[in-house]
Design goal:
heterodimer; A: mainly alpha; B: alpha/beta; six-stranded mixed β-sheet; 10 strands; about 25% strand
Chain lengths: ~250, ~240
């Protein structure tokens, strides 16, 4: 009996049937499309506030401008969506009172915890592809395939940024598990988001995993590839912490 | 000698403020329905949580089929069914899917899980709710769903905390028959209840808990079970128990 496969199948089924997953996905897709389109339209109209917010990107054109703008939005908004979803995946068992039913099973709770992480990362992978396709459609509609065909490869930054952002949100799942609360996980997401943004503005080194993807979204050349790879330590460390937390869980009240 | 399905030996777990269980010994034999009765806060749920690994004891030991809980292989839990606190029923899933997923988590193959779910829905008369989502079920039908999930894999050890909660009279009868059937097939059953009449109908043995300890037993055939119960509890309270 492959208990991790069973746990993943069960968690996948729960996620597919939930309202949370389609709503989070929908808000992320629609939000990214609307905000990117709105910002680019405002920049094209010469709105000085928007041009100031875009910084060096305001000088860019074509795919670079489209992808750069979307990446800035995704680094913040995508992180929020990821944090909320992972906080819900773990915290819901406590809020819904189903956690007691996850004891005394041949499938270990640590396997259930890891399977939730697998489902979360699988969702991030699907979103990574969906967002890249979405921006390709927007770019194509704006005529970029004709006016700037050589830079369409810039789109590859989007799926990578989405996956890195999802990795950074894993601590929110751990907080939701320790605090046994969805809200605590969401609060952790907000705190991490503020920390990442403030650190990026202050110029904290690209080697800090929390900062690297957001910094990379603003200035890709400022962050070396190994620094982006270092982001993978976050899901490994906090995924392990989640598994240990669930393994040692007790129901005191 | 036949190993009991479950055995609690000197188990203690004390919470801040002094509540909990304090050195409880209990055995659930195969083929026996063992009822645990006591007032609110007597420690029945805590004892069941200790038996199911939801809590770790401060001292003492729990054994399932003679194996200490700390050494119990994972696969052994496939022979345990329980409903303690809320049912494992997800609001976004319909009754059938909830049962199938629960069976899968108990180690059933995909095909076997579907067959189990159909049988369980028939046994607890949940067929008409097969396609109804958990969040739309009444409290009583959610309880039936939780009971079906606990019983569908025909476990060797069954632990149910207040299983008649929210059940209508028809549900109580269905549950009674389901438990008697399983006990006749050799399962050991531990149920906690406030309903002494119901307990008298199905239990082979009745243990009385008070202030976190087993203070005595009652004969299910006792004519005035309620009087005998309160006599034991009051006598324990008057004596100060072991507090």
């Amino acid at each position: 009996m492959n208990t991790l496969a069973i746990a993943t199948a069960v968690e996948g089924r729960k996620a597919l049937a939930s309202r949370m997953v389609p709503w989070t996905s929908g808000i992320l897709v629609v939000g990214l499309a609307a905000l990117t389109g709105g910002l680019l339209a405002a920049a094209a109209a010469g709105d000085q506030r928007v041009l100031a917010r875009l910084g060096p990107l305001a000088e860019a054109h074509g795919w670079e401008l489209l992808v750069g703008t979307a990446a800035q939005i995704l680094a913040a908004g995508g992180f929020g969506a990821c944090g909320i979803l992972i906080a819900w995946l773990y915290g819901r068992e406590f809020v819904d009172g189903t956690v007691a039913g996850l004891f005394a099973l041949p499938v270990r709770r640590s396997s259930l915890a890891v399977s939730k992480l697998i489902v979360f990362l699988a969702w991030a992978l699907v979103m990574a592809g969906a967002l890249a396709i979405l921006l390709w459609i927007i770019g194509s509609a704006a005529g970029l395939l004709v006016s700037d065909p050589g830079n369409a490869r810039q789109l590859l930054r989007i799926p990578l940024l989405m996956l890195l952002t999802a990795c950074l949100a894993v601590p929110a799942g751990w907080i939701a598990s320790v605090a046994r609360s969805i809200l605590a996980g969401i609060a952790a997401t907000i705190v991490l988001l503020i920390l990442a943004q403030v650190s990026a503005i202050l110029g904290v080194g690209a080697w800090v995993p929390l900062v690297a993807p957001a910094l990379w979204a603003i200035a890709p050349d400022a962050v070396p590839w190994p620094a982006l790879l270092a982001v993978l330590t976050v899901p490994v460390v906090f995924g392990s912490a989640i598994a240990v937390t669930w393994s040692r869980l007790q129901l005191e009240s | 000698m036949v190993e009991p399905c479950a055995e609690v030996a000197g188990a203690a777990r004390t919470f801040r403020g002094g509540a909990g269980v304090h050195g409880v010994d209990l055995q659930i034999a195969a083929g026996e329905i063992h009822a645990l009765v006591g007032l609110n806060g007597a420690g029945k749920t805590t004892l069941m949580r200790l038996m199911l690994g939801m809590l770790r004891p401060d001292s003492g030991e729990v054994r399932i089929c003679g194996i200490p809980l700390t050494e119990l292989p994972d696969r052994a839990w496939a022979d345990v069914g329980h409903l303690v606190e809320q049912a494992l029923a997800y609001g976004e899933l319909d009754a059938r899917t909830n049962l199938v997923l629960s069976a899968r988590l108990h180690g059933a193959t995909r095909v076997a899980a579907h067959a189990m779910a159909e049988r369980a829905m028939e046994e607890l008369d949940l067929g008409r709710y097969a396609r109804v989502r958990g969040r739309r079920l009444s409290l009583g039908n959610r309880q039936r769903l939780g009971l079906a999930a606990a019983l569908q894999h025909d476990p060797h050890l069954i632990v149910l905390d207040e299983p008649t909660n929210a059940l209508d009279p028809a549900g109580v009868i269905l549950l009674r028959e389901a438990l008697l059937r399983r006990a006749r097939s050799g399962a050991g059953v531990l149920v906690s209840s406030h309903h002494l009449d119901e307990v008298a109908r199905i239990a082979d043995r009745i243990s009385v808990m008070n202030n976190g300890r087993i203070i005595g037993t009652l004969d299910p055939g006792t004519i005035d079970l309620e009087r005998a119960f309160f006599s034991l509890v009051r006598s324990d309270d008057a004596g100060g128990g072991s507090r």
